[in-house]
Amino acid sequence: MGSTTRRTAVCAALVGITAGMVVGAGGAAQAAPTDCVIDRGLVDATAVCHAGTGNSVLYVDCVGFYVPPTRYLPVFGNYRSGKSNHAPVGTTMHASCGLGIALGAEVRPAQ
Fold it and tell me: Is residue 23 a contact partner of residue 46, using CB atoms and an 8 Å limit?
């Protein structure tokens, strides 16, 4: 096998791998719900996504009293609330802070 033939084979292999990565990345991006509207209240948040495919989850960032996993008594500070249930596009999600105040909310694709 000559030097030119080897270079051609390596270039063809690299082009094939790169094309596979681009196609694979495009499929993952299309699976995420989009056009999500979040309504944050004082202690909770609701959200609904109007486009895309797949499921999404709503998370709420809070400040207040909570019980961390390594302690038995409540402490005061920032924490991320429990997440909402997995919801398909068009379904309303709800997440609450419990004994805290909602600082922000975020919708992510379900894992």
Answer: no
Is pLDDT above 80 for 22? Answer: no
Tokens of 8: 């051609």
Distance between CA atoms of residues 20 and 30, nearest Å: 16
Q: Which H, E and C letters describe 68-81, residue by residue?
A: CCCCCCCEEEEEEC
> In whole angstroms, what is the distance from residue 67 CA to residue 83 CA?
16
pLDDT tens digits along 66-100:
888 888 888 999 999 878 889 999 999 999 998 89
Task: Write the burial class of residue 60 (CB in 10 Å: 0-12 exposed, 13-18 middle, 19+ buried).
Answer: buried
pLDDT band of residue 111 (cuts 50, 70, 90) is confident
DSSP label at residue 90: T
Bin 90: left if φ > 0, else alpha if -120 < ψ < 50, else beta: left
Q: Say yes or no to pLDDT of 50 above 60.
A: yes
